[in-house]
Design goal:
Layout lengths: L1 H6 L2 E3 L7 E3 L1 H12 L6 H22 L3 H44 L2
Antiparallel strand pairs: 1-2
Helix pairs in contact: 2-3, 2-4, 3-4
């Protein structure tokens, strides 16, 4: 997967002169989502998958010479990947909070 993402860093648009589509931000957002474990959190996983599909769609559009639409899909991919990061972090923080509440409950029981 990392090879696929790194190969997408610059996409060549089809006909005529070689136009390039910058995918750095979208690729970085997808990598960040993967690194925080978005694939293991159901809601985050959905947005991570959407981001990957949008990157793929952007690549196909760029190859077809549709740079404006490709750019739009890259922005969507970045937004979905960033949202996946937020959802994954939220899940992690909820778990940590629940563990802290449980530790407090156990300490209160010990002190009775």
């Amino acid at each position: 997967m990392k090879l696929l993402l790194s190969s997408m860093l610059i996409l060549a648009a089809g006909c005529g002169g070689a136009q390039t589509l910058q995918t750095d931000s979208s690729s970085a957002a997808i990598r960040a989502a993967e690194e925080v474990g978005a694939g293991k959190v159901p809601r985050a996983s959905l947005h991570l998958q959407l981001a990957k599909e949008e990157m793929d769609r952007a690549q196909k559009l760029a190859k077809a010479g549709e740079k404006d639409q490709a750019t739009s899909y890259l922005l969507r991919a970045e937004a979905d990947a960033e949202f996946a990061v937020v959802l994954a972090r939220e899940d992690s923080e909820k778990n940590e909070a629940a563990q802290a509440v449980e530790r407090v409950r156990l300490l209160q029981q010990e002190n009775r």
